[in-house]
From TrEMBL:
Residues 1-158 form the N-acetyltransferase domain. This is GCN5 family acetyltransferase. Keywords: Acyltransferase, Transferase. SUPFAM superfamilies: Acyl-CoA N-acyltransferases (Nat). GO terms for molecular function: N-acetyltransferase activity.
Length: 167
C-alpha cells in the first residue's frame, strides 16, 4: 500500500533516511532531526512531500519517497524532483519501489508536470538497472554541482548587500 506520510511517520522517515545514508556510504551526513523533518514536511510552508510504502501482509513500513516540485524554464512547466527513494533491504523485490515511482508518476500526470527527475549514484548498479527497466533515461551529460560549508559561506559573502531575499 502507498499512502501520504503523516506527522506520526516522522521518526520512521528519519530512521529510513539514516538507513539510506548508511547504504550510500555517508551515514555521518544524515543529520536531520525529527523536529527539522516535522517543520519541513508538515509545517506552515512544507518544503517537500513524502509517500510511505507499507507491506500489505504485515503493515510494516517498507520504504518511502520524498519529493518536491521544481520548475523548468525551458518548458515553462512544473516538474517533480525525487530527493530520496528508499526500500528497506528485507522488503525489496516485493514491488514497493515500483509502486512508489508509479504513484509519483501519477501525481506528475495529475498535476501537469512534464518532468520527473532524480539522481542516482554512479556505483549503484542495482538502482540504475531498476530505473532503466522502468524506461528512465540517464542523462550522462549533466553533472550535479553542490556548494556547502566554507565554499557556500565564501560565495554568499560576495553577494551585494542589497540583494533580494526571495524566501
Amino acid at each position: 500500500m502507498i499512502r501520504a506520510a503523516t506527522v506520526d511517520d516522522v521518526p520512521e522517515i528519519r530512521s529510513m533516511i539514516k538507513e539510506l545514508a548508511t547504504y550510500e556510504r555517508a551515514p555521518e551526513q544524515a543529520r536531520a532531526t525529527d523536529e527539522q523533518l516535522r517543520a519541513a514536511l508538515f509545517g506552515e510552508h512544507p518544503a517537500a512531500s513524502v509517500l510511505i510504502a507499507e507491506d500489505d501482509g504485515t503493515g510494516d513500513v517498507a520504504g518511502f519517497a520524498l519529493w518536491f516540485p521544481r520548475f523548468s524554464t525551458w518548458t515553462g512547466t512544473r516538474g517533480m524532483h525525487l530527493e530520496d527513494l528508499y526500500v528497506r533491504p528485507h522488503t525489496r523485490g516485493a514491488g514497493h519501489g515500483k509502486q512508489l515511482l508509479a504513484t509519483l508518476a501519477r501525481i506528475c500526470r495529475e498535476n501537469g508536470f512534464e518532468r520527473f527527475e532524480w539522481v542516482v549514484l554512479d556505483w549503484n548498479e542495482p538502482a540504475i538497472a531498476f530505473y532503466k527497466s522502468l524506461g528512465a533515461e540517464l542523462l550522462d551529460e549533466w553533472t550535479v554541482c553542490r556548494l556547502t560549508g566554507d565554499a557556500l559561506e565564501e560565495l554568499a559573502a560576495r553577494a551585494p548587500a542589497d540583494g533580494s531575499r526571495a524566501l
